[in-house]
Amino acid sequence: MKSQTYSSLHDVFLLKLQSLYDIESEIIKALPKMIKRATYPELKSGFEDHLEVTKMQKERLEDVFDELGEKSKKVSVDAIRGLIKDVSWLLQQKMTPEARDASLIAAAQYIEHYEIAGYGTALAWAEEMGHDTIADMLQETLDEERQADETLTVLAEHAMNEKALQPMIND
Amino acid sequence: MKSQTYSSLHDVFLLKLQSLYDIESEIIKALPKMIKRATYPELKSGFEDHLEVTKMQKERLEDVFDELGEKSKKVSVDAIRGLIKDVSWLLQQKMTPEARDASLIAAAQYIEHYEIAGYGTALAWAEEMGHDTIADMLQETLDEERQADETLTVLAEHAMNEKALQPMIND
Protein backbone atom coordinates (compact mmCIF):
# COMPACT_ATOMS: atom_id res chain seq x y z
CA MET A 1 0.00 0.00 0.00
CA LYS A 2 1.12 3.56 -0.54
CA SER A 3 3.17 5.23 2.10
CA GLN A 4 1.08 7.24 4.52
CA THR A 5 1.38 8.49 8.05
CA TYR A 6 -1.11 6.99 10.46
CA SER A 7 -1.92 9.65 13.00
CA SER A 8 -5.62 9.56 13.86
CA LEU A 9 -7.74 6.81 15.34
CA HIS A 10 -9.66 6.97 12.05
CA ASP A 11 -6.45 6.00 10.22
CA VAL A 12 -5.75 2.91 12.31
CA PHE A 13 -9.46 2.01 12.34
CA LEU A 14 -9.56 2.07 8.54
CA LEU A 15 -6.42 -0.09 8.45
CA LYS A 16 -8.10 -2.54 10.85
CA LEU A 17 -11.20 -2.73 8.61
CA GLN A 18 -8.99 -3.29 5.55
CA SER A 19 -7.22 -6.12 7.34
CA LEU A 20 -10.52 -7.68 8.49
CA TYR A 21 -11.76 -7.48 4.90
CA ASP A 22 -8.70 -9.44 3.79
CA ILE A 23 -9.14 -11.92 6.65
CA GLU A 24 -12.78 -12.69 5.78
CA SER A 25 -11.79 -13.15 2.11
CA GLU A 26 -9.07 -15.65 3.01
CA ILE A 27 -11.41 -17.59 5.31
CA ILE A 28 -13.99 -17.82 2.52
CA LYS A 29 -11.28 -19.37 0.32
CA ALA A 30 -10.12 -21.79 3.04
CA LEU A 31 -13.41 -23.11 4.44
CA PRO A 32 -14.34 -25.30 1.44
CA LYS A 33 -11.15 -27.35 2.04
CA MET A 34 -12.09 -27.77 5.69
CA ILE A 35 -15.65 -28.75 4.79
CA LYS A 36 -14.34 -31.32 2.33
CA ARG A 37 -12.01 -32.98 4.84
CA ALA A 38 -14.31 -32.95 7.89
CA THR A 39 -15.87 -36.34 8.61
CA TYR A 40 -18.21 -35.84 11.57
CA PRO A 41 -21.50 -34.70 9.93
CA GLU A 42 -22.25 -32.00 12.54
CA LEU A 43 -18.79 -30.55 11.94
CA LYS A 44 -19.15 -30.61 8.16
CA SER A 45 -22.54 -28.85 8.33
CA GLY A 46 -21.22 -26.45 10.97
CA PHE A 47 -18.41 -25.40 8.60
CA GLU A 48 -20.92 -25.09 5.74
CA ASP A 49 -23.13 -22.80 7.82
CA HIS A 50 -20.10 -20.81 8.86
CA LEU A 51 -19.07 -20.28 5.24
CA GLU A 52 -22.43 -18.61 4.57
CA VAL A 53 -22.10 -16.49 7.73
CA THR A 54 -18.57 -15.48 6.70
CA LYS A 55 -19.77 -14.35 3.27
CA MET A 56 -22.37 -12.15 4.98
CA GLN A 57 -19.70 -10.78 7.32
CA LYS A 58 -17.58 -9.81 4.34
CA GLU A 59 -20.58 -8.00 2.81
CA ARG A 60 -21.24 -6.32 6.15
CA LEU A 61 -17.70 -4.95 6.05
CA GLU A 62 -18.44 -3.53 2.59
CA ASP A 63 -21.43 -1.77 4.18
CA VAL A 64 -19.14 -0.44 6.91
CA PHE A 65 -16.77 0.99 4.27
CA ASP A 66 -19.83 2.57 2.58
CA GLU A 67 -20.96 4.09 5.90
CA LEU A 68 -17.50 5.64 6.26
CA GLY A 69 -17.54 6.90 2.67
CA GLU A 70 -14.48 4.76 1.93
CA LYS A 71 -13.80 2.20 -0.78
CA SER A 72 -13.69 -1.47 0.27
CA LYS A 73 -10.01 -2.34 0.22
CA LYS A 74 -7.82 -5.15 1.51
CA VAL A 75 -4.50 -4.99 3.30
CA SER A 76 -2.73 -8.34 3.12
CA VAL A 77 -2.53 -9.99 6.55
CA ASP A 78 0.20 -12.56 7.22
CA ALA A 79 -1.46 -14.00 10.33
CA ILE A 80 -4.55 -15.35 8.57
CA ARG A 81 -2.33 -16.85 5.84
CA GLY A 82 -0.28 -18.52 8.59
CA LEU A 83 -3.41 -19.82 10.32
CA ILE A 84 -4.61 -21.32 7.03
CA LYS A 85 -1.16 -22.74 6.21
CA ASP A 86 -1.28 -24.57 9.55
CA VAL A 87 -4.66 -26.04 8.59
CA SER A 88 -3.21 -27.18 5.25
CA TRP A 89 -0.29 -28.77 7.11
CA LEU A 90 -2.70 -30.60 9.40
CA LEU A 91 -4.66 -31.87 6.42
CA GLN A 92 -1.46 -33.26 4.90
CA GLN A 93 -0.69 -35.37 7.97
CA LYS A 94 -1.66 -39.01 8.22
CA MET A 95 -4.57 -38.87 10.63
CA THR A 96 -7.52 -41.03 11.45
CA PRO A 97 -10.82 -39.25 10.68
CA GLU A 98 -11.35 -38.73 14.43
CA ALA A 99 -7.93 -37.13 14.94
CA ARG A 100 -8.45 -34.98 11.85
CA ASP A 101 -11.87 -33.80 13.06
CA ALA A 102 -10.52 -32.95 16.51
CA SER A 103 -7.63 -31.04 14.89
CA LEU A 104 -9.97 -29.23 12.49
CA ILE A 105 -12.18 -28.09 15.39
CA ALA A 106 -9.09 -26.82 17.21
CA ALA A 107 -7.87 -25.02 14.07
CA ALA A 108 -11.28 -23.41 13.53
CA GLN A 109 -11.25 -22.19 17.14
CA TYR A 110 -7.86 -20.58 16.54
CA ILE A 111 -9.39 -18.69 13.63
CA GLU A 112 -12.54 -17.72 15.57
CA HIS A 113 -10.54 -16.34 18.49
CA TYR A 114 -8.31 -14.47 16.11
CA GLU A 115 -11.39 -12.83 14.57
CA ILE A 116 -12.92 -12.14 18.00
CA ALA A 117 -9.81 -10.13 18.86
CA GLY A 118 -9.91 -8.24 15.56
CA TYR A 119 -13.58 -7.32 15.71
CA GLY A 120 -13.27 -6.55 19.44
CA THR A 121 -10.64 -3.91 18.67
CA ALA A 122 -12.59 -2.52 15.70
CA LEU A 123 -15.75 -2.26 17.82
CA ALA A 124 -13.95 -0.48 20.68
CA TRP A 125 -12.49 2.04 18.24
CA ALA A 126 -15.83 2.61 16.46
CA GLU A 127 -17.47 3.30 19.83
CA GLU A 128 -14.64 5.60 20.82
CA MET A 129 -15.20 7.69 17.69
CA GLY A 130 -19.00 7.70 18.12
CA HIS A 131 -19.69 5.68 14.94
CA ASP A 132 -22.87 4.20 16.40
CA THR A 133 -24.27 2.52 13.26
CA ILE A 134 -20.90 0.99 12.43
CA ALA A 135 -20.47 -0.15 16.03
CA ASP A 136 -23.80 -1.99 15.80
CA MET A 137 -22.68 -3.71 12.61
CA LEU A 138 -19.35 -4.76 14.11
CA GLN A 139 -21.11 -5.94 17.27
CA GLU A 140 -23.30 -8.19 15.13
CA THR A 141 -20.27 -9.85 13.55
CA LEU A 142 -18.53 -10.13 16.91
CA ASP A 143 -21.59 -11.88 18.36
CA GLU A 144 -21.62 -14.28 15.40
CA GLU A 145 -17.94 -15.11 15.89
CA ARG A 146 -18.45 -15.75 19.60
CA GLN A 147 -21.44 -17.92 18.76
CA ALA A 148 -19.34 -19.85 16.23
CA ASP A 149 -16.65 -20.44 18.85
CA GLU A 150 -19.24 -21.72 21.35
CA THR A 151 -20.78 -23.97 18.70
CA LEU A 152 -17.34 -25.46 18.05
CA THR A 153 -16.81 -26.08 21.77
CA VAL A 154 -20.17 -27.86 22.06
CA LEU A 155 -19.42 -29.78 18.87
CA ALA A 156 -16.07 -30.90 20.25
CA GLU A 157 -17.79 -32.13 23.41
CA HIS A 158 -20.48 -33.94 21.42
CA ALA A 159 -17.92 -35.54 19.19
CA MET A 160 -15.84 -36.62 22.20
CA ASN A 161 -18.70 -37.87 24.31
CA GLU A 162 -20.88 -39.49 21.74
CA LYS A 163 -19.36 -41.36 18.94
CA ALA A 164 -16.92 -39.75 16.60
CA LEU A 165 -13.96 -39.33 18.89
CA GLN A 166 -14.72 -41.80 21.66
CA PRO A 167 -12.57 -44.57 20.14
CA MET A 168 -9.47 -42.41 20.18
CA ILE A 169 -9.50 -41.42 23.84
CA ASN A 170 -8.33 -44.74 25.17
CA ASP A 171 -6.09 -45.55 22.25
CA MET B 1 8.91 -33.84 11.60
CA LYS B 2 9.00 -37.54 10.91
CA SER B 3 5.98 -39.10 9.29
CA GLN B 4 3.60 -40.60 11.80
CA THR B 5 -0.06 -41.47 11.93
CA TYR B 6 -2.06 -39.46 14.42
CA SER B 7 -4.77 -41.72 15.73
CA SER B 8 -5.30 -41.13 19.46
CA LEU B 9 -6.26 -38.04 21.38
CA HIS B 10 -2.85 -38.38 23.02
CA ASP B 11 -1.24 -37.97 19.59
CA VAL B 12 -3.03 -34.74 18.73
CA PHE B 13 -2.63 -33.46 22.30
CA LEU B 14 1.13 -33.94 22.09
CA LEU B 15 1.16 -32.16 18.73
CA LYS B 16 -0.80 -29.29 20.31
CA LEU B 17 1.73 -29.04 23.17
CA GLN B 18 4.61 -29.05 20.68
CA SER B 19 2.96 -26.23 18.75
CA LEU B 20 2.30 -24.23 21.93
CA TYR B 21 5.94 -24.70 22.90
CA ASP B 22 6.96 -23.20 19.54
CA ILE B 23 4.43 -20.38 19.93
CA GLU B 24 5.72 -19.35 23.37
CA SER B 25 9.30 -19.41 22.06
CA GLU B 26 8.42 -17.12 19.15
CA ILE B 27 6.55 -14.70 21.43
CA ILE B 28 9.59 -14.51 23.73
CA LYS B 29 11.67 -13.51 20.68
CA ALA B 30 9.10 -10.94 19.48
CA LEU B 31 8.19 -9.13 22.71
CA PRO B 32 11.46 -7.19 23.12
CA LYS B 33 10.78 -5.44 19.78
CA MET B 34 7.30 -4.52 20.97
CA ILE B 35 8.64 -3.28 24.32
CA LYS B 36 11.21 -1.15 22.52
CA ARG B 37 8.67 0.52 20.22
CA ALA B 38 5.86 1.07 22.77
CA THR B 39 5.67 4.66 23.98
CA TYR B 40 2.89 4.74 26.59
CA PRO B 41 4.71 3.79 29.84
CA GLU B 42 1.92 1.50 31.11
CA LEU B 43 2.04 -0.37 27.80
CA LYS B 44 5.82 -0.70 27.85
CA SER B 45 5.79 -2.07 31.41
CA GLY B 46 2.80 -4.28 30.57
CA PHE B 47 4.78 -5.88 27.74
CA GLU B 48 7.82 -6.23 30.02
CA ASP B 49 5.73 -8.04 32.64
CA HIS B 50 4.20 -10.22 29.96
CA LEU B 51 7.63 -11.25 28.71
CA GLU B 52 8.43 -12.62 32.17
CA VAL B 53 5.05 -14.41 32.33
CA THR B 54 5.64 -15.88 28.86
CA LYS B 55 9.04 -17.25 29.91
CA MET B 56 7.34 -18.97 32.86
CA GLN B 57 4.64 -20.35 30.57
CA LYS B 58 7.30 -21.86 28.35
CA GLU B 59 8.90 -23.51 31.39
CA ARG B 60 5.48 -24.71 32.50
CA LEU B 61 5.10 -26.45 29.15
CA GLU B 62 8.45 -28.16 29.76
CA ASP B 63 6.98 -29.41 33.05
CA VAL B 64 3.91 -30.65 31.15
CA PHE B 65 6.15 -32.61 28.75
CA ASP B 66 7.95 -34.05 31.82
CA GLU B 67 4.60 -35.05 33.39
CA LEU B 68 3.77 -36.91 30.18
CA GLY B 69 7.18 -38.56 30.05
CA GLU B 70 7.86 -36.86 26.74
CA LYS B 71 10.75 -34.70 25.54
CA SER B 72 10.09 -30.96 25.10
CA LYS B 73 9.87 -30.50 21.36
CA LYS B 74 8.68 -27.80 18.98
CA VAL B 75 6.59 -28.08 15.84
CA SER B 76 6.95 -24.98 13.70
CA VAL B 77 3.70 -22.99 13.60
CA ASP B 78 3.04 -20.67 10.66
CA ALA B 79 0.26 -18.71 12.41
CA ILE B 80 2.45 -17.25 15.16
CA ARG B 81 5.08 -16.31 12.57
CA GLY B 82 2.34 -14.57 10.58
CA LEU B 83 1.07 -12.76 13.67
CA ILE B 84 4.58 -11.53 14.41
CA LYS B 85 5.22 -10.56 10.78
CA ASP B 86 2.11 -8.38 10.97
CA VAL B 87 3.55 -6.68 14.06
CA SER B 88 6.83 -6.07 12.21
CA TRP B 89 4.88 -4.61 9.29
CA LEU B 90 3.02 -2.29 11.67
CA LEU B 91 6.29 -1.16 13.23
CA GLN B 92 7.64 -0.28 9.77
CA GLN B 93 4.73 2.06 9.01
CA LYS B 94 4.95 5.78 9.60
CA MET B 95 2.81 6.23 12.67
CA THR B 96 2.52 8.78 15.42
CA PRO B 97 3.42 7.28 18.82
CA GLU B 98 -0.30 7.23 19.72
CA ALA B 99 -1.28 5.35 16.56
CA ARG B 100 1.61 2.94 17.07
CA ASP B 101 0.61 2.25 20.69
CA ALA B 102 -3.03 1.65 19.72
CA SER B 103 -1.88 -0.71 16.96
CA LEU B 104 0.52 -2.53 19.28
CA ILE B 105 -2.25 -3.10 21.82
CA ALA B 106 -4.48 -4.48 19.06
CA ALA B 107 -1.68 -6.74 17.80
CA ALA B 108 -1.00 -8.03 21.31
CA GLN B 109 -4.69 -8.83 21.72
CA TYR B 110 -4.59 -10.85 18.50
CA ILE B 111 -1.75 -12.88 19.99
CA GLU B 112 -3.49 -13.28 23.37
CA HIS B 113 -6.71 -14.52 21.80
CA TYR B 114 -4.75 -16.88 19.61
CA GLU B 115 -3.11 -18.36 22.70
CA ILE B 116 -6.43 -18.49 24.58
CA ALA B 117 -7.79 -20.70 21.81
CA GLY B 118 -4.71 -22.93 21.84
CA TYR B 119 -4.60 -23.45 25.60
CA GLY B 120 -8.41 -23.82 25.68
CA THR B 121 -8.17 -26.78 23.32
CA ALA B 122 -5.19 -28.29 25.15
CA LEU B 123 -7.01 -27.98 28.49
CA ALA B 124 -10.21 -29.59 27.14
CA TRP B 125 -8.18 -32.53 25.78
CA ALA B 126 -6.16 -32.93 29.00
CA GLU B 127 -9.41 -33.06 30.99
CA GLU B 128 -10.91 -35.52 28.53
CA MET B 129 -7.98 -37.87 29.07
CA GLY B 130 -8.04 -37.44 32.86
CA HIS B 131 -4.61 -35.75 33.06
CA ASP B 132 -5.60 -33.77 36.16
CA THR B 133 -2.20 -32.34 37.10
CA ILE B 134 -1.53 -31.27 33.53
CA ALA B 135 -5.02 -29.78 33.26
CA ASP B 136 -4.29 -27.64 36.33
CA MET B 137 -1.06 -26.42 34.75
CA LEU B 138 -2.75 -25.55 31.47
CA GLN B 139 -5.60 -23.85 33.34
CA GLU B 140 -3.03 -21.65 35.07
CA THR B 141 -1.58 -20.49 31.76
CA LEU B 142 -5.06 -20.02 30.27
CA ASP B 143 -6.02 -17.81 33.23
CA GLU B 144 -2.83 -15.77 32.75
CA GLU B 145 -3.57 -15.28 29.05
CA ARG B 146 -7.13 -14.16 29.78
CA GLN B 147 -5.79 -11.79 32.42
CA ALA B 148 -3.28 -10.39 29.94
CA ASP B 149 -6.06 -9.80 27.41
CA GLU B 150 -8.17 -7.99 30.02
CA THR B 151 -5.18 -5.90 31.09
CA LEU B 152 -4.68 -4.87 27.46
CA THR B 153 -8.36 -3.89 27.16
CA VAL B 154 -8.15 -1.74 30.31
CA LEU B 155 -4.86 -0.28 29.10
CA ALA B 156 -6.41 0.63 25.76
CA GLU B 157 -9.26 2.38 27.57
CA HIS B 158 -6.85 4.22 29.87
CA ALA B 159 -4.71 5.30 26.98
CA MET B 160 -7.79 6.46 25.04
CA ASN B 161 -9.47 8.25 27.90
CA GLU B 162 -6.55 9.78 29.67
CA LYS B 163 -3.74 11.17 27.72
CA ALA B 164 -1.82 9.08 25.31
CA LEU B 165 -4.40 8.60 22.62
CA GLN B 166 -6.82 11.44 23.29
CA PRO B 167 -5.26 13.77 20.74
CA MET B 168 -5.78 11.31 17.90
CA ILE B 169 -9.50 10.75 18.35
CA ASN B 170 -10.60 14.06 16.91
CA ASP B 171 -7.84 14.35 14.37
How are the elements arranged and paired?
Two copies of one chain form a homodimer.
Chain A (H helix, E strand, L loop, with lengths): L4 E2 L2 H29 L3 H28 L9 H15 L1 E2 L1 H32 L3 H30 L4 H4 L2
Helix pairs in contact in A: 1-2, 1-3, 1-4, 2-5, 3-4, 4-5
**Biggest interface and residues each:** A-B, 57 and 57 residues
The helix content of chain A, as a percent range, equals over 70%
Give the terminus-to-terminus CA distance of chain A: 51 Å
- Taking pLDDT < 50 over at least 5 consecutive residues as the criterion, the unreliable ranges of chain A are none
Structural features, described:
The structure is a homodimer of 171-residue chains. Chain A has 171 residues and is mostly helical. Chain A has helices at 9-37, 41-68, 78-92, 97-128, 132-161, 166-169; strands at 5-6, 94-95. In chain A, helix 1 (9-37) packs antiparallel against helix 2 (41-68) and helix 2 packs antiparallel against helix 5. The mean pLDDT of chain A is 92. The interface between A and B is large, with 57 and 57 residues. Strand 1 of chain A pairs parallel with strand 2 (94-95) of chain B.
